[in-house]
Amino acid sequence: MTENAENAENNHEERGLNLKTLTEIIKEIDNDQNFIYPEAVSTAISEITLAVHNSYSQPDDNPQNLIRLILQVLQRRPVPQLSMTISRSELAKKPLIMQLLILMQHSINEYQHDYLQKRLIWLAIAMHTSVILMQHSTKQHTKNILMQFKQAQFSRSSRRTWVWRELPDLPQMTMSVESILTIFTVLLEQQKSAYELLNDQQATHAEEKKVAKDKLSQIEKITTAYQHAHVPQKPKPKRKKLPKNIKVKAINLADNTSRLPLDSTATSHNWNTTPSNDAWGNTHDDIEHSAIAIDLAFLDANTESYEDLTTSFEERIDHHEAPYVSYGEYPDPLIKYSIPLQTIDLSLQQNYMSQRNLALNSNTRLLSLAGYQALFATLNQDASTLPETHKTCAGILLLSMITGLPIKSLLTLGYIGHPSIFSIHDKRAYIHHSLGITKRSAYASQTLVEEDYENHSDTIKVPLPLWLIDDLLACELPLKEDFTAYLALLGSSLGLPYLSINRIETALHVVLSRYTPDCHEHIADIICRTPAPHAPAMYYSSHTSEMIIAHYKSALSVLSHLSSFDLTYISPWHKYTVGSGFALKIESVHKIMNEMKAWTDQSSNDEEHFNRTSIFVWFVFCLLTGVRPNNGLGRMYDIDLDMGWLLINDKPVKKVKSDRLIPLCPTLIRHLTDYRAYLINYQAKHQGHHDISAIIDNIRLGNDEALLKLLYERAPSVNAPTLKDIKRGDAYHMTKHIIDANPYSTRHFVRTQLENLGVSLSLINTVIGHEKARQEVLGRFSSSSKADIKRVASVFEKIAAQLGLSDITINHYPNSNHVGTSTAEVDHANK
């Protein structure tokens, strides 16, 4: 044993760290195969580790003294020559800490002096860190730090060796835990920023992102391991076991059911139930509270059904009309059982609703931004500092404020932490809910694959501060009296006369939709779990999980403006797309339309060409307007081809009219104009078919007649074909070999593309028909002008160009025959 090693051993014997102890620890590090260390190897690793340990205890000591000790050990060649084969396979046979020693011994002859010293000292620090970690029984971090430094030394890839360029040289080093941890932390933040910057740039090459991600992962593992070795870690909280037999349903927005446990006595919002007398937590006749109550049986969605086409949940919601006024508690039994009375405009409630939708600050049902920020700051402080009972009350209110979870649910025994709602891990916690999107597996397509679709998930995850969840799980739930007392005290101390449970529960939605930059109500609906009938747009678009979490973090930044709330728990999320299960990618639709045009041009006779042309233009019409693909789509007296407008009521089966305006882009106007000319040309070639001629005359004159038609054969006794409106079932069956999907997917596609191209939420809702009740552009409370809507035509033109429709023209059939041959498409149209 060398003199320095003996001194180091003597200095640390009293701390329990000596060569004998080290040798035992080293034998356990990454030694699953029970590898037998040569005595010289274990001694060398122990001496290097003790040398590093000694240098930490003497911060004024020059790092040159440490490197001199390391070189003395390595120059003895402790690793036998037979074990010095430097290859991936040979190194893998030995424990990681010995692999580091081999690479250090090998590097003596491999690198120039200054460069060598820098590497040796950092590899020695990794060795020492792994030993300290083993004393804490954290094997994964032990393996991480050894593996990352081994790869940096062994690999030739820049994504592994970059750390040598960034780590400081010996003259700039101070051998202290604080100094080294600062070095790692700064590098980690630099790599995080670099990766986030690349991630925000959509045009960045995938390989460049991969390199940045690998670098971030490397320094993150090193930093985390070093922190666990040298920075005291909080003991893992002892979380109470959840009570048995607690039934909590997972949040599925398609269910529109209570989020309380199944055996709860909470008031149901279905019309056929009697309201509970327990109104605690509710404000009587509070439209902000009762707005989520809705009767799914009231004004049921009346959708059309077609052969082999199942009406999905999304389509039913799309046709559903929410009542203008709904009640959490019914003022009078006569109103409860009388549908007409439910639709009466009640002036006071109507005033509240218009204030909410128009975001007027005069609405006393909401707090001001300053009020929300002051409330958040107080709850954050109280949840950390108050005595137990009020601390728990503040924690529950804070959790509701940052998640929108109902407080009555949070006060239910076993709700917080229940795996149906919460996912709690050692380093991360979040709540998760499902949009309830129809699964594509139920509609196995013969022509489309998973890669053709935009979205692959309907799960929304909202991250939670782990400290708050641990505190709430460790304490007893407050009594109702304690909670009410704290809430009253809170409102009084903050000077918020309108403070209530409901205003706390709705705070996140308000801040997201009103005060968060670049966010809007649609994102707020997704994050805050707005029930399906009130937010149909959630099922017709596409978003990345990263974007949703970014908006959420931004909203909490706004809320926590007056407090020191730590947002570092909201870290980069696993990237996946969330939204409609039926929205196709732009590339997939481009390919489909090309195939459909080729199919049209390959028609074998005039009648077949007519029907295929009609179906092709029908799809173009749906893709460039986003209309609901219903029977009789686009009547001539509603289409203004000169001005480029479409007035449409695309819920024809509904008793309540819902007319709206859609702008027509130049490409669509050209296709519709050419199709009208195609019909007139067909009429001229078949003048003997009087029924057809009369229908085309009505189209030409702009009468009440659908523009897009199918030719079909009537009964044999009637020796003449006629025209009929196109049904969605016709479009599906005739093109099933090209696109085996419900044509209603065109609507999902359009909404997604409008969002991707940056159209504002209000305009998307106006064009698509997802406005709030009585907020339509032609209604009393419209916030969109016709000029605003007209400008969306340029966006539709961009979509047309991306789909290649701008370059496609409608051709007449070259060798026209008189109608007499019944084609497959003509036969189908007659079904």
Walk me through the structure.
With 831 residues, the protein is mainly alpha-helical. It folds into 3 domains: 3-230, no CATH class; 244-578, no CATH class; 586-829, Intergrase catalytic core (hpI Integrase, Chain A), CATH 1.10.443. 49% of the residues lie in helices and 5% in strands. The chain is built from 35 helices and 11 strands. The strands form 4 sheets. Strands 1, 2, 3 and 4 form a 4-stranded mixed sheet that branches. It has a 3-stranded antiparallel sheet with strand order 7-8-9. Strands 5-6 form a two-stranded antiparallel sheet. β2 and β3 form a beta hairpin. The longest helix has 25 residues, at 206-230. The termini are far apart. The model is unreliable at 1-16, 256-299, 323-330, 339-355 and 816-828 (pLDDT under 50).
Topology:
Layout lengths: L2 H11 L5 H10 L10 H19 L5 H13 L12 H5 L3 H12 L5 H23 L3 H16 L3 H9 L10 H24 L5 H25 L20 E2 L34 H4 L22 H7 L13 H4 L2 H4 L4 H11 L11 H17 L2 H16 L3 H4 L11 E3 L4 E6 L24 E6 L1 H9 L5 H15 L6 H5 L1 H9 L5 H8 L13 E3 H15 L17 E3 L6 H16 L4 H18 L15 E2 L4 E4 L11 E4 L2 H20 L4 H12 L7 E4 L9 E4 L2 H7 L10 H12 L4 H8 L17 H5 L2 H10 L21 H6 L2
Parallel strand pairs: 1-3
Antiparallel strand pairs: 2-3, 3-4, 5-6, 7-8, 8-9, 10-11
